[in-house]
Design goal:
heterotrimer; A mainly alpha; B alpha/beta; C mainly alpha; B: alpha/beta; four-stranded antiparallel sheet; 12 strands
Chain lengths: 328, 272, 358
């Protein structure tokens, strides 16, 4: 095979894995949107917060140490222990559930009948709040995240492709693990929503709040459940992204990237989030690959949004969304 | 072609003119569902034409076709003797067709006065630059149109709520404000979608009075969808009956009342 | 006792539609204007101008523009930062290409250029609504910033990639560049604010303003009663971008003096102006000012409190600021979605009746 084509293929594969990463964040959006019609702008920040908390637990950080030191003149930083990863993940999950509970209680409950744009702006406020909270609790410097997932070039893929094509593809093992974990996540979420009682209740709420209430489903309990699951998905996304590029502020900007993913895949479709993520991931990398020489680099800054924009002009409801029929 | 000279005078002295609007073989589909099936009828100038039928018969859809919001897959709409080409709703409004809506479509963020003023927008010609500067042309035009709107407000007796935000009004008053907005446009044809829905007896009497006055004083042609049979029979000059998207009756209230198809589908029979 | 309307009745429609129908309010407004133009310049310090008044004035203009788009016409935009950048780069190119022409003219022209760009990126609004439109404006935000940072023509091939405002004068006094005094800059911005606010008021009270609000409240019904959605939405984008472009031009030319697109006009600015509009109150001219004041003065006060008074490190104070802003957004949206303007109106209602409870 010609070299250019091999390069393009490699870029495509890397694009797919990047797409999985986007899809992980988009999944959280879809869950919350399905259950409450809220577009949770804070999903990316939740991923960052989850990652920060995990690292904090793992390394035995004292939460709010910076603040405590400033207020009382102390010099505390760490408890001095190192928590095993498994425990740290459980602890972080507990924090995310607590967060979901607080969000429902303090914010969502009071905004039930508001228009979507108000809810959207509330999640922007929430995003800012969580970002500041994460910074104050655990500090804003870049952190390394390691949960034991193997990283670095995959020798297996390298050998395999070398034997096939005479050129070894570089695929990071972390990305392969991410793809596998994402697949497990999607399957289990789909199974959960189709076959369990809670899952059914979730779908009922997503369909019609009033009707769900009238058959005895507790809207609030469902919302806490949804935001907890979204928190779990955020944790997974945070771990993957954090392991790849370190835990830092730019993680929350991924939230913005998830928007084009959702536009392509539809706001209410779980498989759509994956497909949308893959398309954006591949599209970005390929566009950069082909056009970098002519128009310069860093096109990933805007390509996804332009793609989404073009898409919207022709198909406003996305690939998997429902067509909107307007009535008067 | 249309014979515009043909007209007649009603028993109570109102003049009904020739055919103003005509629907010819309208068929409207939504995907696999046929909402309107090959319906034709006409509306004469100055008359009050009722469109009745059971729920889901396609009456509101028909009104939406007249408004230009839905585009029928087959058939034509003729207005004043000419075929009306497919156009956007706001262009239809400029022809002089105003309407009210089944589920009130007022602009909840604005006051009653502002809502009714929006009805005047096709009469306001000041450019954006004029409006930005305000003094002079735009201000004069605003005052002139305000005067006309105040006349409509007087007519419908809603002076006391003119500055109230519309969102705060009770249902009956909202309906009246919607009527005012439609009237402010000084329309040729007024389309009313269930103007009496949800009203008690007194409110219905008031609304009937207003509708009759509008037709009487301004000569406005009116097409209305309504479920209250008493209202329909009393108010209208002619009636169209729809059922499952098809026309099953067309004529004077008496003719329609005695039409067997209409009785079977909609009116029913009084049991002794 | 304080606030009386007794005896003030209107005898013409013109009088009825006055911006300040109550004479007491009108006089207060003229007083504020007089103080702003005549008294403040005398006592103005560099610190006050730099940290508070000039940014307040400039952001008021941006908030006015965004309020027209979101508050009056209901079109969500997250591209404000990039549109300010368009104004800034436009005025830079004009200043350097035509140095003889007055800076004020250049600023207005920069606004016109931004209006054009705004209409272009507003075209999708004819097909797309709500969040989807927000995404389209994000495309504008990221693309335009990328364009300005990557295309050397925009920053006149400077090696630093930054644009710097050369000195320009008005009536012999420098109003841009390092030699411009705080007072002249303040007066220039104040003049723009007064004129633009007047224009905004006129547009929003007229026919086009009602058309915008009709589109915002019920766009389908609006079209059926005669509003041309293309004209309404695109004029909203045009007018809004005109305002935002002027704000950007002023920000660069007379306030910052030098700027780099990604840093000065990034997405954080888009959110900042959006928050001003939300906190100030959607759909009100006063709201733009209240929101801008809140989000310009607030952080300054917070910093004075935390860093100067309590001695906290600046990065900690910055994080607290983010938390406070986030919390305020939530509190406002829950308690008073119509922002400070609604609070102000409630206060006036109470003052009308004071000392009676109702």
């Amino acid at each position: 095979m010609p070299d250019q084509l091999l390069f393009a293929l490699e870029v495509t594969l890397n694009g797919l894995t990047a797409g999985i990463m986007y899809a992980l964040v988009a999944l959280g959006f879809v869950l919350i949107f399905k259950a409450s019609g809220i577009f949770n702008f804070a999903q990316g920040v939740m991923a960052l917060f989850a990652a920060l908390t995990l690292v904090g637990f793992q390394s035995g950080q004292i939460p709010f140490s910076h603040l405590i030191n400033a207020m009382f003149g102390t010099r505390l930083h760490h408890f001095g222990w190192n928590m095993p990863t498994f425990m740290a993940i459980i602890a972080t999950m507990a924090v995310m559930v607590l967060l979901a509970f607080l969000i429902e209680r303090l914010v969502l409950k009071h905004l039930i009948n508001q228009e979507p744009i108000i809810l959207f702006m509330a999640t922007i406020g929430l995003a800012y709040f969580l970002e500041g909270l994460g910074d104050i609790m655990w500090g804003a410097e870049v952190k390394r995240l390691d949960v034991g997932i193997p990283q670095g070039m995959s020798p297996m893929i390298d050998d395999l492709t070398f034997n096939w094509f005479g050129y070894g593809f570089y695929l990071d093992r972390l990305d392969l693990w991410a793809a596998g974990i994402a697949a497990v996540l999607v399957v289990s979420l789909t199974l959960f929503s189709q076959y369990t009682r809670q899952g059914r209740a979730l779908r009922a709420v997503a369909d019609d709040h009033q009707a769900a209430l009238s058959v005895g489903i507790s809207l609030r309990a469902i919302w806490v459940l949804t935001w907890s699951i979204a928190g779990f998905v955020a944790l997974v996304a945070g771990i993957m992204w954090g392991a790849k590029s370190g835990v830092q502020f730019s993680l929350s900007l991924i939230a913005l990237k998830a928007l084009p993913v959702l536009i392509l895949g539809g706001f209410t479709s779980i498989p759509g989030a994956i497909v949308g993520g893959l398309i954006i991931g591949v599209g970005e990398k390929l566009f950069d690959f082909f056009f970098q020489s002519t128009i310069g680099g860093a096109t990933e800054n805007w390509f996804a949004y332009m793609l989404a924009l073009v898409f919207l002009l022709f198909r406003p409801q996305g690939l998997f969304g429902e067509k909107i029929i307007e009535r008067v | 072609m249309k014979d515009m000279s043909q007209g007649y005078t009603t028993a109570d002295g109102r003049k009904i003119g020739g055919v103003m609007m005509e629907m010819k073989n309208i068929t409207l589909r939504f995907g696999g569902v046929v909402a309107i099936k090959d319906i034709s009828f006409d509306i004469r100038e100055g008359e009050i034409r009722a469109i009745i039928g059971p729920n889901g018969a396609g009456k509101s859809s028909m009104l939406n076709v007249i408004s230009g919001f839905y585009h029928p897959q087959e058939g034509e709409v003729w207005f004043r003797g000419e075929r009306r080409p497919s156009m956007r709703p706001y262009q239809v409004a400029r022809l002089g067709i105003a309407r009210t809506f089944q589920n009130i479509a007022l602009f909840e963020g604005m006051s009653v006065l502002d809502n009714i003023m929006t009805g005047r927008l096709n009469h306001m010609k000041a450019s954006m630059l004029d409006q930005a500067i305000w003094w002079g042309k735009a201000q004069r035009e605003e005052s002139l149109n305000r005067e006309k709107v105040e006349k409509v407000i007087d007519f419908l007796e809603i002076q006391h709520i003119r500055k109230t935000p519309v969102g705060r009004l009770p249902y009956g008053l909202k309906k009246r404000v919607e009527l005012a907005r439609a009237l402010a446009a000084e329309p040729e044809i007024l389309l009313l979608d269930e103007p009496m829905a949800g009203m008690n007896v007194e409110e219905k009497e008031d609304m009937c009075r207003f509708i009759l006055d509008v037709n009487d004083e301004f000569g406005t042609t009116i097409a209305l969808i309504e479920h209250d049979m008493g209202v329909v029979m009393d108010l209208s000059d002619r009636v169209v009956v729809m059922d499952y998207g098809k026309k099953i009756g067309d004529g004077t209230p008496d003719e329609v009342r005695n039409n067997q198809d209409v009785i079977d589908a909609y009116l029913g029979v009084a049991h002794d | 006792m304080i606030y009386r309307e007794v005896g003030q009745y209107k005898t013409s429609y013109v009088a009825d539609s006055h911006t300040f129908p109550i004479i007491g309010e009108r006089r207060a407004y003229y007083l504020v204007l007089a103080v702003a133009f005549l008294v403040v310049p005398v006592f103005l310090t560099d610190y006050w101008a730099q940290s508070i008044l000039v940014p307040f004035l400039i952001y008021s203009i941006a908030a006015l523009g965004l309020n027209i788009l979101i508050g009056y016409c209901g079109q969500l935009s997250l591209g404000t930062g990039a549109f300010m950048a368009v104004g800034a780069y436009a005025v830079f190119k004009l200043m350097t290409a035509f140095p003889e022409i007055n800076l004020l003219i250049h600023i207005v022209l920069a606004g016109v250029v931004t209006a054009g760009v705004g209409v272009l990126f507003g075209l999708p609004s004819l097909r797309i609504k709500g969040f989807y439109l927000a995404v389209a404006t994000l495309a504008a935000q990221f693309f335009l910033i990328w364009l300005f940072t990557r295309t050397p023509w925009f920053f006149n091939y400077s090696s630093t990639g930054m644009i710097s405002a050369p000195t320009r004068t008005l009536f012999g006094m420098p109003i841009s560049g390092p030699s411009a005094s705080a007072t002249t800059v303040y007066l220039v911005c104040l003049s723009f604010v007064v004129v633009l606010a007047w224009l905004a008021r006129n547009l929003t009270r007229g026919s086009i303003g009602r058309q915008w609000m009709a589109i915002r409240d019920m766009d389908i019904a609006a079209e059926i009663i005669g509003v041309n959605p293309l004209k309404a939405k695109l004029t909203a984008f045009a007018v809004s971008s005109f305002f935002v472009g002027i704000a950007g031009a002023l920000m660069f030319a007379v306030y910052l003096g030098a700027a780099e697109a990604g840093e000065a006009f990034g997405i954080d600015k888009s959110f900042l102006v959006l928050f001003m509009v939300i906190i100030g109150g959607l759909g009100s001219i006063l709201g733009a000012f209240l929101g801008a004041a809140f989000l310009v003065v607030g952080p300054v006060l917070l910093k004075i409190l935390l860093v100067n008074q309590l001695g906290w490190p600046t990065d900690l104070a910055a994080h607290v600021e983010i938390i406070v802003i986030g919390m305020l957004i939530l509190v406002f949206l829950i308690a008073e979605p119509h922002g400070l303007t609604a609070l102000w109106r409630t206060l006036k209602e109470k003052l009308r009746l004071w000392p009676f409870p109702h």
